[in-house]
Structures are given as structure tokens and as C-alpha cells.
Amino acid sequence: MEALGWDSCDIILVTGDAYVDLPSFGMAVIGRVLEAQGFRVGIISQPDWKSAHAFRSLGKPNLFWGVTAGNMDSMVNRYTSERRIRSDDAYTPGDIGGKRPDRAVTVYAQRCREAFKGVPVIIGGIEASLRRIAHYDYWSDKVRRSVLMDSKADMLIYGNGERQIIEVAHRLANGESIKDMQHIRGTAVMVKGVPDGWLEKVSTEIDTPGALIEHKNPYAMTDQKGHCAEKENHREREKVKPISILDISKKRDKTVIRLPSYEAVANDEVLYAHASRLLHLETNPGNARALIQQHGSREVWINPPPIPLTTQELDAVFDLPYSRLPYVGYGDIQAKETRIPAYEMIKTSVNIMRGCFGGCTFCSITEHEGRIIQSRSQTSILREIEEIREKTPKFTGNISDLGGPTANMYRLKCKSAEIEGACRKPSCVFPDICSNLNTNHDPLIQLYRKARNLKGIKRVFIASGLRYDLAVKSPAYIKELVTHHVGGYLKIAPEHTENAPLDKMMKPGIGSYDAFKKLFEKFSKEAGKKQYLIPYFIAAHPGTTDEDMLNLALWLKKNNYKADQVQAFLPSPMSTASAMYRSGRNPLKKISRTQAKYTEQVFIPRRKKQRDLHKAFLRYHDPKNWAILRTALKDMGRTDLIGNAEHQLVPSGNKTQTQTKQGQSFRTQHVRRKPYTKQRKRRP
Hints:
The protein is α/β, with parallel strands linked by helices.
């Protein structure tokens, strides 16, 4: 600030990540975007949250505080899927854990208010975005209020926030009050009620879950007999006269959908699933309506999603003058104690697009970035590759990734803007690829060719997740990929082999994976390369039974796959799979309390013992898991799978038995081995 001649900052941003001036880090993007608009921006990275002292280091912001937990939800960053504390943090210098608080958005926002009272606080980033309504919190195992309530922030920005933050900054600079900014797309605010001129539609009339269960209002006064002196406010509301879908579409800009209140969804699993279903139906910027949800005596108002950025606007964001380096105050970025793993992983990667229309229920990309694909121009992407070549220390000539949320949705979109604006499907590729979806991969093939032919570029790898069901629609793309852009192994995520759990994930059947694998191997052979697919699978996802996991394990054994790491399902806030986990029902279908034909019950592997078993099935080859698998197979009546034959899953427990396959020997845990000593030579 002294070097720039600043006496104060207009905006101060607080982040839970180490500061890296790279467009893959959200705080760098927001800071550079605001700087380009002429604002003086200060950034406080990973402050000591135990007092407000660190939050005063840059003085009082003239306009507002901007608060984010960082590139990850702080709870996902801090805890494993088994709720164990992580000792590391890839977004911290030295990979040290514990540099940010749990529920960082709430804590940081409170400290900002303590530091300087009266300054507006705006929260954003993925943690705020996915907690904008009442949501199930896996770590406390309960439904929590909107983070807007808990943090006492003035505004919540969800999704990619460039449009929203620029509008808010300029309006505040022009002297407007943040209290008057209630209808900016991509924001959520607290209101006292539905404003005049708005048509209120109750969600239970749009998608009726059946008779509602009356719950005691915790905010109501009670009489001497212990009865509530007043009913819940949302029960008193006059019912809105049903209107046609046509009338709603004509008035959608002034229509608000009332979701069940926080108190209702916290105590009623059916209403929780219903609210989740309605939320996900209102995610298309072309037809989404505002949402309102009561929290006690106050209301959370959620405006429709922001309009996606055009290619020119997205180019402008990525063409800003990023240094592409961590903050210089961290010291030598190559040293172990200051090395930032996340930076090392993505410093030579390029984000070519945003959004995802896949709609996988366990993933939060669609809820955060939206389902409309926003693609950069080839010129902007190639220019960034050249910047990497010039600015990255010790650059080897290898680009680690050209991708984003997915590797191969670049420039894919609906063939009709009118159909896209009216569509309310949660996915463009499930249960089948929509006939209106353009699946032409030619622009991506052209981009790959231009990128690898740039001066100083040796190899361009593709590391982002690949939608193989889309890829098989373009064999020419698969040929280009495996011939030039695979470094021996390609990671791919079929997630499961059985249709029941795949349907709950909104993922394609294993047949699509088999079709992709066949083409992958064909083109690898034609290129004269030995290359392999590394499939990823999820354990303990809602809808997955022990039998499903057993069948998956048998498929893995048949195909000779041995997973090194296992991913267990983690219910992230606001995702559809989390609603399944919380409610035991399927929000992908109509929710009804009274009509069984409309409500699909979902089996939830919730107990730790069962989650451990599902993970053990994925690592059937690990001797540490053989005991638990033997017990499970006996309980399931599948003792025929215990033994040393080719078709059997785990060896029997006899002390001297071994299991041999393709020259590999696996001894059981019961065999005692002599310790290795220097005097004893190893067998070759």
C-alpha cells in the first residue's frame, strides 16, 4: 500500500487459502477483476482467526469485506469422509493442516465485523455457495441454517461471482446501501417478507409431498399449559391460488417459490428431500425463479442464478495480469517448508471452460458453477499457455492439463437457445444423452493440435475428468487423445458397475465404459503405445447394497484392477446425494408422503461397519481386508467365493494357503514371516 501510495483499501478480501496469483484460485480472480474495475483491493490470506487483530492489518475497507473459505469447503478440506482430522492442507505453505478454522466463512465474517463495525460483509466461494439454504451438514449430522444466517453477513454471492461482485462494488461506490440490493442475480440476502408486486408460489403446490407434519415453532411463546401461543408463520400464510405453468413462465421474473422453512426441513425428512428437489429444478438461468425460505422470524431470499459469461467476458477474466506465482512473502516456493502442493499440481494447467451439464448427484460443480458450459476462445487459451512458458519457474515444456470441471465439454451446448432456456432437466446426459445436445468434439481436437504445436511446448496432457459417454460419440476425439495426450495412464471415473447405484449417481451404465475402453485400447495399439485406464469407484454411495459392492469387487478381480486408494462417499452440502443420505428418499423423482408409487426409498450404507465393508470390497486384494470380507461373504451366503481358485475373491484363512495369480503370490495375514536382517540376504 505504501509503494502504491494508498492510504486505504476500497475492498479487503479474506481467504482461507494461501494466496496464489493464478486464475485457478478464486480469490486471485476476484481480486484481479475488481482491480481491473479501478478498485484498490487488499487481500488477507489465512489470518489468525482467534482474534480480530489480523483482520485490522490493512485498515478499514472503504466499501466492503469479501470473505471466502478458499477453493474448498473448509470442512471437506479439514476432515476425511470418516470425519477424521487431516494433518495436511494442499492449499497451505508446507502442506500444513489447521491453518483455517472449521466453517471458515462464518468465523471470518464474525471477525470482520469485530474489526470494523458497520462495514458490509459479503460472503462467497464454494463454502458459502453450497450452504445458501438450510442444508444437511455431515460433520454435525444435522440440518443447519443458511450460512447467511450463521455468519450474519449482509449478502451471499453464489456460483462464479464476477458479475455480482462488480455490480455490488460499483453500486456501493456510488453511495447506495447494500440493504437496497435485494434482487441481484446470483446472490442471497435476508428479507422480512415477500415484497409487493411479487407472486408467491408455495413449493408444496408445485410438487406436493402429501400432508405436512405440524412442528412446534421454537420461536413462538408458550402459554402456561405449554401450548404454542401462535402458529408457525409459514403455516399461517394464505394459500396462493394455483396458476398454470404458462402464467408462471410469463411472470417468472416476479415469481418467488416458497420452500419449507428451516424448522420444517430440519425435523421432516420428506420435506427436506422435497426442498432439495425444488432447489435443483430452479437452477437454469433461463427459467429459474427466486426462492425464499423462512428461518425463524426472518427469511432467506435466493435470487436466480447469474447469467453465464460470454466467451469474450470469460476471456477478459483469464487475460488479466496474473503473476502466476504464490505471494512473495512465503519465500522460496521450491523449499519443502513453503511449498504449496495445490500450486505445484496446477501451475502448468489451463482452465478452458466452466460449468457441467452432467448433474452427478454426489458432485457440487453444477450447484456452484451451473450447468451451462462457458468456454474460452482458443486465442485466450493459447495465450495463457505461452504465459506459462514465460512465467513459470523451471518450466519443462509440459502442460499438465487442458480442462476444467470436465475434460471434454468444451463448446458443447444445447442446439437451440430456446430449448436450453426452457429446459428443467437436471442432466443433459442422463439417463441418455439428450438429442438436443451438440456433442461435436472438433473444436477441442483443433485446440489440442494448436496447443501442442506452440513453440517450447513438448507435451500437453489431459488430466481433468473425462465424460466417456460423450467421448464415444466422437471416436476421432478418442484417437487424438490417446495418440498425443495420455502419459501412459488415463484416469476415468465409472464410479460403479451396478445400475442401481449408478442411477442414484446419475451416471451412465458400465456399457459406456466398456465401449470407451475398447476404443482406447484400439487407438493406443494403432499408436504403438502401451497405455492403461485407471478407473475410479465410490464406496458407500446412497443406493449401494453389499451385493452391489460384491459384484463390483468381482468385476475388478475379473479385469485385474487393484485400487491403491479408495474414495468413500462424503455428503457435501446441498448435493442431491446428500439429500438421499439425509432423507432415505430419491429427490430425482417425485416425493410423496402418502403415495408409495411416487416415492422411492433409497438404501443408505450409513453405519461405519458397513462403510468399512464397502471400502474393503474395493480393495479385495489387500490382506488387511480378508478377514472382514470372509465374515461378510459367510453372512451373505457366498462362501463359494472364499478360496484359492481363479473365480474366488479372497483366500481361506488356513495358515499355509497362498493365492497365486499371474505370477503374484499373496500370503494370508496368519502366516508369520521372519524379520529381515542385514545378515540375511533377500531372495531375488
